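ARCHIVE CARD
CATEGORY: sequence design from structure
SOURCE FIELD: tokenized fold
FIELD CONTENT:
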């Protein structure tokens, strides 16, 4: 009779198809013992327990297998000869159970039973042992097997870890056995390497197949590299672009080293392949960020420097000229301040797009291409880049002469002509371009940029929207401008700005009807006229605080005059058109008047006709609100811009000021008289006041008077005067009614 002994000291199954720490034998290793000979089973179990093992025993293979479905012992001891399921079949079946693949199995056989020994191994046994009552021998064997199993499991674990690491690193290994001196030869890839190149592991693959995965354009270079590598048995490390069978493109890093030479000098190589696509993409992205401006996509300062240095190197070697154009947008700050930064950015992006079309702009120049040194390579350096802000540079790596560079510059100015639409507005953008040539105007990028900058400033000084080529004589004027710019910043806080006042007279009434405030800058004992600093102030943004100051100062002066001699007329302040586009202008005007206690209708604002039209409708709401609070608006330099009649009829304007240029030509050219007549008629029909400015002669005054314009300003009456002089002048005019212009009032029309 066979007894099924109860199962004792069992451990729960660990999910150990990959071996885990838990499956390591402990101090008391668990043994599953299977023997149909009950006595033997009992004796062996007892002996092993006595030697520190925890034993579970079964007398049939079937019972043991049932147990093994839920438990995994550290080691299994099987009697080979058993009825029903013998040890071999039991062993074969247990190997198919989960987690039992690697558990050591010791098969107990009879003495000298060679056939059994072979069958035991075939069935998956780890070792065999001849049945013996010498328990210490059995113990020794079991402990040896357990140790070996532990070592094997550690090996498996570390191999699994390695596989995981390789998988994470998208890395695989290979061995290459080339035919000496050639690139053909046997290739063995690890399973991971197959995955890296997108092929199914295990299929036979030759180097030819791999090389066909490389784009045609790169193949030749790769083959010759492999050839040299094989001939010189050197170390190989390179990136290769390949196209996977599914069409994806990857970049593979290939690294290989020669093994020690085999018989006959032939050598093989061991190496790794790694998918570095993501890393290279990231590196490319970083390189792009470091070298290109993110707003416009153009090369940035750093990239320009690199390109210029290369271009200068070529020019030095080949003895040709190199051109550097500095392009600066005119009055970009105005646009940025009035329309906002987002619109400014949009505008810069559009400008960049246009500039790019003006040269043979090459987006990418690789180090390799630049170094390749073919005669035409330097041409690929040609590009437009952004230095920062609204400053751009065009690099012309080879120009024949100065005119060549100027041609590109005028192409650039032309490209700006079409209006740019940003923030729902049409903007006309112009640029000033400075040209410097290598080697004449500088031997390195910094000198060239500096001198192109000097030339650019002189283009701005000559009225903008122009090109200037560097000449040493320009350098002084550039420095001067820089000095003015710095001094102007300080002028406000140092209270160097003053207002002079020019009377407005009504020749028909024979009296003063107002004054125009005109700014001057007391700089180092000199009085600088506004024409020399107002455009600069507009460009650098200082015009806003300066205008605010003028408003406050005019209001203050008005208060003084009102108190001292009952001056009850208005003072006109000149404001740049863009100030009218600011939401806070109305408040500012109101507060200035309020602070000095002068009525709002004693403040008049002058906006030039061109300024009004340039800003389109941006200024309209402010004009309306100013009108609503009683401030009078005058359109300055009228006749020089292109007012549309519809604007004039709808805008709340009080007065048109006939530009001085028409007044100057009165009596000299019939056109000027026609223009003046038309303006006067227009003003009259629209119910607007009309003022003539720049009246210098009695003849001019007479003609204007005859044509129906009675309010005038000009040297004929008075130059713009400091406040005290203006006061004196007004008082004298009152008590001295014999001035020629007052006499005019008595003449019949
Ligand atoms: P504007 O507003 O047209 O001022 C008239 C200019 O003509 C003044 O030049 C004035 O001195 C000058 N003028 C007056 N009568 C005569 C004359 O009979 N003959 C001649 N040839 N010229 C005469 P100024 O003071 O040099 O100002 C030049 C321009 O600067 C002004 O032209 C105005 O556009 C601007 N400006 C002056 N002050 C300010 C200011 O406070 N703010 C702003 N934004 N611009 C100002
Ligand atoms: Ca004016
Ligand atoms: Ca004017």
């Amino acid at each position: 009779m066979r007894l099924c002994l109860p199962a004792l000291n069992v451990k729960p199954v660990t999910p150990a198809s990959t071996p885990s720490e838990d499956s390591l034998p402990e101090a008391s290793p668990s043994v599953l013992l299977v023997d149909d000979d009950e006595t033997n089973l009992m004796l062996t179990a007892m002996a092993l327990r006595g030697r520190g093992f925890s034993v579970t025993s079964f007398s049939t293979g079937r019972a043991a297998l049932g147990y093994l479905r839920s438990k995994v012992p550290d080691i299994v001891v099987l009697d080979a000869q058993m009825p029903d399921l013998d040890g071999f079949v039991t062993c074969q079946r247990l190997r198919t159970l989960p987690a039992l693949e690697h558990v050591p199995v010791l098969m107990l056989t009879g003495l000298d039973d060679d056939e059994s020994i072979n069958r035991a191994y075939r069935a998956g046994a780890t070792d065999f042992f001849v049945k013996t009552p010498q328990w210490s021998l059995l113990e020794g064997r079991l402990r040896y097997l357990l140790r070996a199993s532990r070592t094997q499991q550690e090996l498996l674990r570390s191999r699994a870890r390695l596989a995981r690491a390789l998988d994470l690193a998208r890395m695989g290994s290979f061995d290459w056995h080339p035919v000496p001196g050639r690139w053909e030869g046997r290739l063995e890839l690890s399973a991971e390497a197959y995955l890296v190149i997108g092929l199914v592991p295990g299929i036979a693959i030759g180097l030819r197949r791999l090389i066909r995965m490389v784009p045609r354009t790169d193949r030749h270079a790769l083959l010759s590299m492999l050839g040299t590598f094989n001939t010189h048995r050197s170390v190989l490390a390179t990136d290769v672009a390949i196209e996977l069978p599914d069409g994806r493109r990857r970049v593979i890093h290939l690294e290989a080293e020669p093994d020690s030479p085999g018989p006959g000098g032939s050598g093989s190589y061991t190496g790794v392949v790694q998918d570095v696509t993501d890393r290279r993409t990231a590196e490319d992205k970083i390189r792009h960020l470091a070298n290109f401006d993110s707003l416009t996509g153009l090369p940035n300062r750093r990239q320009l420097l690199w390109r210029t240095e290369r271009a200068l190197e070529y020019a030095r070697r080949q003895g040709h000229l190199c051109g550097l154009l500095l392009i600066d947008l005119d009055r970009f700050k105005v646009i940025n301040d009035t329309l906002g930064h987002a619109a400014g950015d949009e505008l810069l992006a559009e400008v960049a797009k246009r500039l790019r079309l003006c040269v043979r702009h090459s987006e990418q120049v690789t180090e390799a291409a630049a170094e390749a040194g073919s005669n035409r390579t330097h041409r690929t350096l040609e590009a437009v880049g952004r230095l920062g802000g609204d400053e751009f540079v065009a690099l012309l790596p080879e120009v024949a002469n100065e005119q060549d560079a100027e041609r590109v510059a005028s192409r650039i100015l032309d490209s700006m002509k079409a209006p740019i639409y940003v923030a729902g507005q049409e903007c006309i953008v112009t640029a000033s371009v400075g040209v410097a040539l290598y080697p004449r105007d500088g031997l390195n990028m910094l000198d060239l940029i500096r001198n192109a900058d000097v030339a650019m400033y002189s283009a701005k000084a000559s009225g903008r929207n122009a090109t200037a080529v560097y000449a040493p004589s320009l350098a002084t004027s550039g420095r001067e401008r820089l000095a003015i710019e710095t001094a102007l910043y300080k002028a406000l806080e140092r209270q160097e700005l003053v207002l002079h006042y020019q009377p407005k007279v009504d020749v028909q009434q024979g009296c003063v009807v107002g004054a125009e405030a005109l700014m001057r800058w007391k700089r180092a004992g000199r009085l600088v006229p506004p024409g020399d600093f107002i455009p600069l102030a507009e460009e650098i943004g200082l015009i806003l605080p300066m205008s605010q100051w003028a408003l406050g100062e005019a209001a203050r002066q008005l208060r003084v005059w009102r108190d001292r001699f009952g001056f009850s007329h208005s003072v006109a302040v000149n404001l740049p058109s863009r100030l009218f586009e600011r939401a806070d202008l109305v408040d500012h005007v109101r507060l200035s008047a309020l602070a000095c206690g002068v009525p709002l209708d004693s403040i008049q604002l002058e906006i030039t006709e061109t300024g009004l039209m340039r800003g389109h409708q941006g200024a309209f709401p402010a004009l309306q609100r100013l009108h609503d609070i009683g401030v009078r608006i005058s359109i300055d330099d009228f006749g020089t811009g292109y007012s549309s009649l519809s604007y004039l009829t709808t805008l709340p304007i009080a007065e048109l000021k006939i530009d001085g240029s028409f007044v100057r030509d009165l009596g000299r050219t019939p056109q000027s008289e026609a223009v003046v007549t038309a303006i006067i008629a227009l003003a009259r029909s629209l119910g607007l006041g009309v003022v003539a400015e720049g009246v210098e002669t009695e003849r001019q005054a007479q003609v204007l008077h005859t044509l129906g314009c009675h309010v005038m300003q000009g040297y004929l009456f008075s130059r713009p005067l400091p406040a005290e002089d203006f006061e004196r002048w007004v008082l004298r005019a009152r008590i001295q009614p014999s001035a020629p212009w007052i006499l005019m009032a008595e003449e019949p029309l």
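CARD ANNOTATION: The two ends are 153 Å apart (CA to CA). The chain is about 45% helix and 20% strand.
SHELF: design records, drawer C
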